[in-house]
Design a protein that fits this description.
Family: Belongs to the pterin-4-alpha-carbinolamine dehydratase family.
Number of domains: 1
GO molecular function: 4-alpha-hydroxytetrahydrobiopterin dehydratase activity
Helix content: 40-55%
Number of strands: 4
Structural class: alpha+beta
CATH class: Alpha Beta
EC number: 4.2.1.96
Order of helices and strands: HEEHEEH
CATH topology: Gyrase A, domain 2
Pfam families: Pterin_4a (PF01329)
CATH architecture: 2-Layer Sandwich
Number of helices: 3
InterPro entries: PCD_sf (IPR036428), Pterin_deHydtase (IPR001533)
Length: 94
């Protein structure tokens, strides 16, 4: 899988509401009402990640969920990362 150029990454990330590009990852940090809401969102995202066969690095502390996307097989950001980031935004906004 081909990695995206820095220019392509910056153009695409500008179209996303919740994501930044940091240290080679697409990154978002989201706050929810409480732990149960954060965990419920993780569950919804997990099913989508599995369907796309693309699994994020993430952490959850109480009501905060931090997600990092990078295509490890390609050692960089690919279309796969943006496909999952876009779907995560749909789930969050849903």
């Amino acid at each position: 899988m081909k990695t995206l150029s820095e220019k392509d990454i910056q153009e695409r990330i500008a179209k996303l509401d919740y994501w930044d590009y940091e240290e080679g990852y697409l990154v978002t940090s989201l706050d929810f009402k409480d732990f149960a809401d954060a965990f419920a969102m993780m569950t919804r995202i997990a099913f989508e990640a599995q369907a796309q066969n693309h699994h994020p690095e993430w952490s959850n502390v109480y009501n905060n969920l931090t997600i990092r996307l990078n295509t490890h097989d390609a050692d960089g950001i690919t279309e796969k990362d943006f496909a999952l980031a876009n779907k995560i935004e749909e789930i969050i906004k849903g």
